[in-house]
Every structure is written in structure tokens, then in C-alpha cells.
Design goal:
The structure is a homodimer of 312-residue chains. Chain A is an alpha/beta fold and 312 residues long. The first copy, chain A, contains ten helices and twelve strands. Chain A has a five-stranded mixed β-sheet, sandwiched between helices. In chain A, strands 10-9-8-11-12 form a five-stranded mixed β-sheet, with helices on both faces. In chain A, strand 2 and strand 3 form a beta hairpin. The radius of gyration of chain A is 20 Å and the shape is globular. The two termini of chain A are 18 Å apart. At the A-B interface, strand 9, helix 7 and helix 9 of A face strand 9, helix 7 and helix 9 of B.
Amino acid sequence: MISLGIDVGGTNIKVAAMNEKKELLEVFETTTDVEKGYGLFIRKISNIISDMRKKYKQKLAGCCFAIAGDVDSNNGVLRYAPNLSGWKNKYIKKDIENLSNLKCIVQNDANMAAWGCFIFDLKRKFKNVAVFTLGTGIGGGIILDGKLYCGSSSSAGEFGHMVINYRGEKCNCGNYGCLEAYCSTYSLKKNAIKKIKNLSDYIKKYSMEEKELSPKLLYNAALKGDPVALKLWSEYGVSLGTGIGNVILSFNPDRVVLCGGVSRAARFFMPYVKKRLCEFGIKAPIKFSKIIVSRHYNVGVMGAAAFVFEKR
Amino acid sequence: MISLGIDVGGTNIKVAAMNEKKELLEVFETTTDVEKGYGLFIRKISNIISDMRKKYKQKLAGCCFAIAGDVDSNNGVLRYAPNLSGWKNKYIKKDIENLSNLKCIVQNDANMAAWGCFIFDLKRKFKNVAVFTLGTGIGGGIILDGKLYCGSSSSAGEFGHMVINYRGEKCNCGNYGCLEAYCSTYSLKKNAIKKIKNLSDYIKKYSMEEKELSPKLLYNAALKGDPVALKLWSEYGVSLGTGIGNVILSFNPDRVVLCGGVSRAARFFMPYVKKRLCEFGIKAPIKFSKIIVSRHYNVGVMGAAAFVFEKR
């Protein structure tokens, strides 16, 4: 039996095929084409399912969507996704099951990343795990007693919008002082522009354009010892440490796992996360929880594929 | 069968006796006498257990301690409690079971208040519940899937020390900007002193002494329409709303329950809690969770007594 994980982003769809031993068989991408409409999207996925059935010459166990947005996982409905504008209250589970006759799960992408970390990084060794996805924004996922915890209306784990600095920076969500307002691709870029006195020199130095003031560029600059980049990562670490501390005090997990693109800069921000955690006064749960960085690049789509095999 | 809940504070011990129908038979208090030592405390509890056996002429089902402090509930050990100084790493469960031959549970007081709210306010009607205890400090307790969630090292639910204002007010725990630094008996008093320009007039007006600048006095002053007191409760509500919002975004519970002495001023701070929650950008879980105030004064010790009857 083969399962499919399907990560749907605003630009690309990433598909992972996995066998029952949880071995990743392949990962490939295709375009989402949001503007062409939801109907075409469903037919595209349905075609991929047909292709995979032919290719692997066996029955598929099911597919699991991982979507950055508000998802009703009980009913398999995409309620709303900021990057998939116009697709509101879409019955993805029903539509795929009707068209492809394949068991379908719809989940939040951070939840599936959390499941991926739990299965592939932690090998199910721990009961309670909190996962932070560090990317364009900050997402969160929670494993409790070895099971995915989605909350009462499938919205648990919104760690990115915990307020860590009441009356602080404006966040994209509309509130002020959210963790994401300090730890996201856009906040890194905004802070970089503030800190770099002579932006054109900086841009020349790293042979880039302003729009490339990305986490990757800031990572590469930090590798070269650039003081502005190092300072930015230290501030990122202090804010992230505050958010991680809040989550540890609430959940008292065995492990906190960081994943997502920006987690690859961990060597620069992790010392500041740890220093920040030492400032928390309630020591027992802080000392108890270990923080690790996921080793897997495709942990979200891998988690989705693995989740198909889970009994629920 | 009768169960005993035993709430141990720095000054008083509160004992509740309960039958299997979860009817409260009696609640009484005695002094803790911390300075007389742990040995005497254990003998005192043991004598109470003997007295209750004689009084109710039946077998006791067990007893459950509720203690404000760091508790290892798996092993029944009080690791540390700020109000019971000197009592570190005390094997309460073992000591009581040896001396009184009675099943003994040791729990954190906020966890037991959460259990009390779940059983007596919510009648187990909801699966996922977050409870805030509003008193001298702020505690928290979590019910997930209808069970008490204590975390991986019995430290979950430390909502009072979530940071809501990074680099904000100093908290008693040593960190800065904790929820408790804004919502506690001492922060209310500190803010009152700051706000009241002519303290002696204010004190005269309410015929009291400065040390009585308590939540109760500020509640009574608010009842009389005192603008300073009303302002203080509005600020309390805004800060508490931030903390509640963070917990809702993390756990996505069905209900949030407020209990503890200060919750009785809810009529003055709740409108500001609700207003604050409207400012959160992630609307779905915020709208989903209803916030209620516990109707029970002794909900902590009642929760402890009820917890004895729970299968675990």
C-alpha cells in the first residue's frame, strides 16, 4: 500500500509517495494555479492520484492534504487559507473521495509538520511534543500522549499569534506583538532594513537585490561573520525563545522540535533561544524540555503521507 | 465511601469530605503550622483521617492533596512550594500511605481547581477545558479529552508565567512581563498605589489601611463607582484577556473557566477581557471558546476530593 501526502501552497503543490514502512518513495512538485479555480485544482489532484496508481501498480491507502490555513479536519473542509484566496469552505475530502474513490484527510500544514517530526525525527519515542514551523510565518503543532492534538475546532497550535509583547509590533494578523511579528521572513527583512544603515553598500557587498534580503541571504551573511546578520539572528532567537518558553510552561512537553526553512539558521539563533529560556523563573519544565531541530527538509509532506497510515 | 480533599496553603489547610455522588459533606479549616515542621504536618493530617473515619463510620476511598507548588504527581512528591519553605522533596504519598493506610494522591492546587471546575461547573460536558485560577498569583490547569493533563513532568498549565509583555514588569518569579506581573493581588496593589495620587485621602474614603488595598477593597470601591478602582479592573481585564487569548490560540479549548477569589470581580474585568480578545487576529478559535466564571468558592478542594474517585 502506498500513501500520498499533498502539501498545497499558494504557488506550488508538493506530493510525497510513501510505503507502509514509512519509506519515502518520491517527492515532486507541480503548480497550484490558484487563479484557474478550485475545480481544476481538484481534477489536477485526481489525475495525480490516477498516475500514482498506475505507476506503483497497487492500491493506494489514502491521501492527506496539508494546507496552510483554517481547516476543519473532522469533516475534511478547507474553511479559509490566506494563500488560496477565493477557496472558502471547500469540501476537499468529499470532492476527492467522489472523484478518485480514495480515502482523503484534510489537515493543517503545521499539524502535519508536527506529525512528521514526531514520526521521523523522534521515532514516536516521546509522548508530548510541541513543534514550531519556522518559515514565512510561524506555525505550531501539538502531539499529546502520542496523538495529534487538533483542539476542539481544529485550530490548536497557533503559536505564531501568541502575544509576547503586548502593544508591540503590528502583526500581519491585525493584532500587535504576536510572536510572528518578531520571527518571520517579513519581520527579519523589516528589521534588516532598519538595521542596515547603508542598504545599497550592503546589497553590493552580498551582490543581491533588496527583494533578496531573505533568511537565506541573512544566513549566508552570518556565515561570513556579518555583524548585522548575526545581530538579527540573535534578536530572532530571543523572541523565539520567549514563544518557546510560553509553550513549555503551558504544555510541559518532553520535546520541542523546530522545523521549516528558517530552522536551518538554528546555529545562529539557538544560543539566544537557550539564553532566553534561562531567564524564565519557573525552572522545572524549562529544564525538562529538550529543544531539537528537525533533520528533514520535507517533514510536512512526509508527515501528511505518514498520517494516512495512522489509525484514528 | 468518602473521599477527602486536602488543600494545603502557607497559613491554612482546608479539608473537604465528599461522597461517591460527589456531594460535598463538609469543608473545614485548620492551621498549617509550617514552622512546626513537616513531621508534625503529616501527623496532623493522619489524625484528621482517623477522625473522619470515626465520624463517617465508613471506609475512606482515599485522599488527595492540592498544593500550590511544584509537585511530582506520578510519585506523590512535593518537590518545592514557595509558601511551605523548607519542605523540599517530601514523599507525602508514601508518608500518608504508611501512617494512615489510605490511598493518597498529591497534586498541584491549580490542577485540582481545574478538575473541580470540570466536574462541578461544566459537569464533564466538554472535552477540552483551560482553567485560570485568579488569586494571589495566577495558576492554570488543563483538561484534555476529558482527562486532567499534567504534562510530561507534572508541570503543565503555568499560565501565570507566560510572557505577555517581553521586557515588561518584573515578576515575582524573576522573569519580566509574565501574566502574573499584571494580574495578581500584588500587581493590583502596586498599580493602585501608583494610580492613587493622594493615597491617604483614598484610604480615609474607604476607611481602611494601606495594607488593606486588597482585591476585595478594590472590588467594593468599584461597586461604589470609584474611577480608580474601575480603571484598575479594566487594566486587569486587558492583561488577563491577552493571557486567555494566548491559551485559546494554543489549546483551542471548548471552554475557559475562571476561578479563585479574584474571579469574583469578573463583572468589572470581563468586559475588557472580551474586548481584548476581539483584537486577536486569528478569529476562529477565539470565537469558538466560551469563557465562564466558576460558581464554586471551594472549587480547588472540591476538585481534589472528587479526583479521588477518578479512575486513572
